[in-house]
Amino acid sequence: MLTVLGGIAQFEREMMLERQREGVARAKAAGKYNGRKPTPDAIR
């Protein structure tokens, strides 16, 4: 039973990540995606 629930959870996670990647790609194509702001460590 837990194996089935784990498989469903893994599948749902993969679907969420795929939708996120598609959204980021769409935003980049529209020129609206800038990514994360640089951290103080990255600026040095």
Automatic annotation (TrEMBL):
InterPro entries: Resolv_N, Resolvase-like_N_sf. This is Resolvase-like protein. GO terms for molecular function: DNA binding; DNA strand exchange activity. It comes from Nitrosospira multiformis. Residues 1-31 form the Resolvase/invertase-type recombinase catalytic domain. It comes from the Bacteria. Residues 23-44 are annotated as: Disordered. Pfam families: Resolvase (PF00239).
